[in-house]
Design goal:
Blueprint lengths: L3 E5 L11 E8 L8 E5 L2 E8 L1 E6 L2 E6 L2 E5 L5 E5 L4 E8 L1 H4 L2 H5 L21 E5 L2 H16 L4 H6 L1
Length: 161
């Protein structure tokens, strides 16, 4: 039973004018207490680098392992149940305002991007996507992580692209 719900705030991760961040974390089973759940004021793409366990979404468990990539809706109530010694992850955090008008060009007949729509109904659909990564996704997240950390001139333009 959920006893604690914490919301991660955008202000703790984003610069005021740049609503994008890449974070790295190592979690242990002790970090993810059974009664603690999380929501966020932003979208999150998580790539599992090492370890395995489950992501609990609205208390429904889904297996995750090295190579899993997860897109999480801000309102999704989530936590990890870690079944290995550690769960090493990269998080790509962003606000929809970061995507601007580009999101409209991604809409298609298959409704994959409906998760970004205001009309998305969380009660009838799980508010996340889970898939195994591939070399292109792995490379792209790695490039974003390096660019974000280096913060070279115009890094925000590269990251938005």
């Amino acid at each position: 039973m959920i006893q604690k719900l914490k919301t991660f705030r955008s202000a703790d991760f984003f610069l005021q004018e740049f609503h994008f961040a890449v974070t790295y974390a190592i979690h242990t089973p002790e970090d993810c207490l059974e009664e603690q759940r999380f929501t966020r004021e932003f979208w999150k793409i998580t790539r599992v680098l090492k370890g395995h366990g489950r992501i609990l979404v609205e208390d429904t468990p889904f297996p995750v392992h090295e190579g899993s990539v997860i897109l999480v809706h801000p309102a999704a109530v989530t936590t990890f149940e870690i079944l290995s010694k550690e769960l090493e992850i990269d998080n790509v955090l962003f606000d929809l305002s970061f995507l601007g008008n580009e999101l409209e060009s991604l809409r298609d007949n298959f409704r994959f991007f409906d998760i970004f729509s205001d009309s998305f109904k969380q009660k009838s659909s799980f508010a996340f996507y889970l898939q195994d990564t591939n070399p292109k996704i792995t490379s792209l997240i790695g490039e974003m992580k390096r660019e974000y950390k280096a913060r070279r001139t115009n890094y925000h333009i590269f990251l938005k692209a």
